[in-house]
Structures are given as structure tokens and as C-alpha cells.
Predict the 3D structure of the following.
Amino acid sequence: MKKVLIISASFGSGHVKAAEAVKKALIIRDSTIKVESIDALDYSDAVFKKVLPSLYLNIVNKFPWVWGYIYDRYNYSQEEIKELGVKISEEIKYVIGKSNAAPLIKHIKDFNSQIVVCTHFFPMKIISELKSAGMLNCYLIVNVTDYEIHHYWISPEVDFYTVASEEMKFQLQKRGVSEKRIRVAGIPIDPIFSEQFDKGKIRQKFNLEKSLPAILVLGGAAGRSPFLEIIESLEDVQGTVQILAVAGNNKKLAQKLEIAKAKLKNKITVFGYARNMHELMRVSDILITKAGGLTVSEALSVDLPMLIVSPYPGQEQANADFLIESGAAKIVTNIDLIGYKVNKILSNPQELSRMRLNCHKIAKPHAAKEVVDIIFSYLNHGRA
């Protein structure tokens, strides 16, 4: 039986959603295949699973400059790491991996799949170590889930990489990865984003007026952003706009907004964790968001221009840089200016159309399907 194991890590929701997108596309392609998608942190001890993601989120939210320093400090080539004596891979393997990875390693061996797909570098490092030690015989496919290559993603044991842009392909090649082992497929998103929908019916579903602009505001899966301040800043937009406000899992934040919206002029609909993001994005004119790799890839797939709010140093800044350079997004670091910037875009239909076109040019809505094509090439022929 053909078997595929997909491993993510829940440092934020994007890596897990990318893994689920690949699983869904696999089942669509061949429902007889045995495929499993797991979160590597589910196989670590309870304290580790709770503390490490929480620590990461606290750092990027409260001390973003610290995360920026860590990100840049360890983003070296193999040669530079040897020269500087930096042992980050050993730290990952032994400080983090060895103490918590035993249950995960056992599951990987027990499942015994021909293909392992990783959407986060943490499980990728573990698989690479097992392959290097001769303890695991499988093809390792890695889906990089941001718009920049970091050293953490590099391993000679990876058989194939999928990336989101030609620039990332170039970065991998500069770090010694053969062009034959790379494809610019995009970041895997739910295949539902590539399906056709009736926008009129979706507008009716959400009680939206066709004559008014719709602004989608995302608070993140955990509801982390200056959410209420963004909503209040949109009061500066001339006329009335419709706001689709997604508070994520932060119920208190959603409740605060429900109370506050009565005093605001704009028409506001509040959502918690949204499982219908494909619909919300399709009926929106502008997305206000952080620059998570998966979220912006979803937006690109439906030609949705973005206003990126204060990206964190590191991968978020790299994602934002790519979008701005491509003309698909604008950036705002002063919350008070959000309404002004939204108004400037909405008052210039040509600019809004240009941004939509630029989104379309760099979108990869079929990324999950392309990853599946690569998987089947390895299953059937031992190569992509």
C-alpha cells in the first residue's frame, strides 16, 4: 500500500494548515492512499508542547526585536556556520529534539511510509537525522511555508523542496541545493481556494451590500494584533465600509468588538475562528492582516490586495517585502494611518485593480496539487 506521512509543527496555525491542504489534495487525487497528517508537537511531552509555542508567540508579540535578532543571527550558509562555530543544528537536534522526539521517531518508524512531507523545519531536522544515521529509508519532501529561505530549512537529506517564488529557488541554489531538487510550486493552501464560487450568493450569506466596499480584518488564529485599534482607525475612511472582523480564538476580543461596534459608523460583522476563509476573502476588497505565509498565499489566490500591519522582524518582514515588491500589498506601521491608507486605495479604482492584477501574477492557487504531483512522481518513479 502507498503511504504518505505529513508532519507539521503548531508554531502558529500556518504550518498545520499547509499540511492539511496537502493531505486533502492527496485524498482528492487518490482516495485509496494511506495518508496521515500529524503535528510533531503532539508527540512531545505536555510541558514542551505548551511552553515552546507560547514562548515563541510571546517573543514575537512583546519583544519582536529579539526574534529578529535570533532569525538573522542564525541565518548563515553551512560554510559560515563552520567558520563561526555556531552549532544551531546540534541545538535543534539535541536540546529540543533528543529530549522530546522519541515518541515522534517511534511513530515515524511504525508508520513506515515511502514519503515524508514536512511543512516545518523542526520535524524536517528529525527526519534528516534519521535518514543520515541510516535509521529511516524514505523520500523527504519539504514545503517551505514563507517567502524567504532560512538556514533552518537546509538539509542535504531533503530529496525535494517546494518554494513560493523564483527568488527562493535562487536562494536554495546559492546554498548548494541542486535546481533539479526544487520547484516553484507555491505554499500549499486548501484546494477549495481554487474552486469557483458565486460571489453574489456569498454576499447574501453574510448580508453584505454590493454597493459598499468590504474590508476583511484578521486578528490572527490566536487573535493577536492591535485588532480594536484597526477597526477604530477604519472610521476615518470616507463614507461607510463593511468590515468582516475575524477575531480568531480570542473570545474576549470578539465580545469587546460586539459591544464597541454599536458606537461605530461602519457596518461590522464579527467572526471567531473562521473555517470559511475562502468565502470571506472572495467577497472582500482589501485584506488587513499580519504577513503569515499561508494567510497571504490564500489572499493571493483570490486576487485580494493586502494592507500588512507592522510585520515582525524575520519571516514576516520577508513575506511583506516580497508582497510589496510585487505590488500586491502595502505596509502600515502606524495604526492611526490605516483608515487613511484604505481610503487612498478605495478612492483610486485603477490602483485597486492594479493591486488585484499583481496578486494574480504571483498567486499559486494550485500549490497543494503540485506538491501531490511531486509525491506521486516519487511514489511511481523515485524522482520528481
Summary: The first strand starts at residue 3 and ends at 8. DSSP finds 17 helices and twelve strands in the chain. The chain has a mean pLDDT of 88. The first helix runs from residue 14 to 29.
